[in-house]
Amino acid sequence: MEGVEVTAEKTSYKWGERRVFVTGATGIVGSWAVKELLRRKAHVAVLVRDWDPQSELIRSGDIDRTTVVNGKLEDYDSLERGINEQEIDTVIHLGAQPIVNTALRNPLATFEANVRGTYNLLEACRRQASLVKSVVVASSDKAYGESEKLPYTEDMPANGRHPYDVSKSCTDLISMAYAHTYALPVAVARCGNIYGGGDLNWNRIVPGTIKSLLRGERPVLRSDGKMLRDYIFVDDVVDAYLALAERAHEDGIRGEAFNFSVGGGITVLEIVEKIQKLMGREDLKPAILDQARSEIRAQYLDSSKAKQRLGWTAKFSLEEGLKRTVPWYTDFLERSGK
Hints:
two-stranded parallel sheet, 13 strands
């Protein structure tokens, strides 16, 4: 709430007593979020549209310890059925069409998944308000759009201009509408580029670079390599989302957006160089295509609000996160023969 100062405090949220609905559970964040929720003994239901046997959720066997709700975000009835029948009290909304280039090629499908999907889910939560006590909506730094002022702070407006960015701006505004109009206990999480094991979108810079280097190939950069980005390890993201879920019902948290960041930005070329050094493949110079379009040149986040109100700080530096990421892909690619 504007003007309300909230200090970080210990939560009494008992995950072992919670019934959690995770959308986007087969993605990178969803897979690791489910793993952590299971570790905390929560009852977990997951929304699954497409069965992807390579997803960490499925290949690890974690899905066998969840309740699967078959459906998609665009289908309102599937969402309300899942929440109602599973008696969900905590919702972690990670589902989205997450790729910028995919959004450029087909903006309608992106708007359907990201915008319609969000208001469908929040409306289902509103109608099942007697059950739902906490909702976290995963957004992105892309929601801010292009800005000459950096780092982004939460008092800056949602100002996307291109299809993916606009879809995240809309996601945030819709979430705020449900929080402030209907007192829905929803909070928004904004992260930069999330990396870690389990991301199988090979056109993203971290998994794509690791895969190329393991094959003895030059990594390919769609951009000129000078775009500035904010990178955060998936374990820190999961920790952030669950910390936010524990307090989304509170004044000063409900209806608020929170940035989560390690702090500062790094160019695409610089992160490629870090991966090359870590893997001992500095001989494979990147192929710079300089073909990226409709993308923001520089983005990074200020997460001091999350530290003050939630007591959250990132545990992993970029170097530490990459050291944990490379072995996952090495094992995955060896096992899958790719």
